[in-house]
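R.M. (postdoc): so does anyone remember the format we settled on? I'll just put the structure tokens first.
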């Protein structure tokens, strides 16, 4: 029973096609509490598609079971921020019960405090990614699903985020993320490679 209690997501024989091309081929995977999983693979290998299936954003065949009342936060590869709003207004929009006193230290650590009144459209791609990741990190959720979260971040910022993600996992949250950066994969307790629609665990 203890095994059932801590399983967040159970994926069995998941397959999906795009037109006539097989993107994912009967993938099975379980995501447990306090687990970090990294999916590696080349561009167009189907990594984003796999994450979208987990988040019920894409049709698939097979079965995905979820723990009751599982809270998932999904950060896509594309920019989620609203360009016309300030950084602060975006934070308020995406973070439930956002209180300006909350996470002040973390906001400082990510260098976001200095740009709260700047419109997002005037921020660089790397800064937008940083703000999006900050939003993901302060969610109180069971499972974080992150698609190429570190693209556009320099090594220092990447290190800060990886440290925070590790702390979340230590506190019982689970994370599944895609990356093509080998140093960003090292945080994960389990690594998989997605190639030709098949998910293979790396030792």
């Amino acid at each position: 029973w203890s095994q059932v209690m801590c399983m967040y997501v159970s994926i069995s024989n998941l397959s999906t096609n795009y037109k006539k091309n097989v993107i994912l081929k009967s993938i099975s995977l379980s995501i447990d509490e306090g687990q970090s999983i990294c999916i590696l693979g080349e561009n167009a290998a189907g990594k984003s598609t796999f994450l979208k299936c987990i988040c019920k954003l894409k049709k698939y065949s097979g079965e995905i079971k979820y723990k009751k009342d599982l809270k998932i936060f999904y950060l896509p590869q594309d920019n989620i921020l609203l360009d016309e709003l300030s950084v602060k207004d975006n934070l308020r929009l995406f973070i439930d019960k956002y209180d300006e006193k909350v996470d002040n230290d973390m906001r400082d650590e990510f260098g976001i405090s200095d740009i709260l009144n700047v419109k997002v459209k005037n921020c660089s791609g790397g800064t937008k990614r940083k703000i999006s990741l900050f939003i993901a990190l302060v969610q109180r959720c069971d499972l974080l699903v992150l698609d190429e979260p570190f693209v556009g971040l320099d090594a220092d910022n990447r290190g800060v985020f990886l440290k925070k993600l590790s702390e979340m996992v230590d506190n019982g949250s689970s994370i599944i993320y895609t990356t093509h950066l080998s140093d960003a994969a090292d945080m994960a307790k389990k690594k998989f490679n997605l190639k030709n629609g098949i998910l293979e665990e790396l030792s």
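R.M.: ...and that's the designed sequence above, right after the tokens. Also worth knowing: The longest strand covers residues 7-18. The two ends are 28 Å apart (CA to CA).
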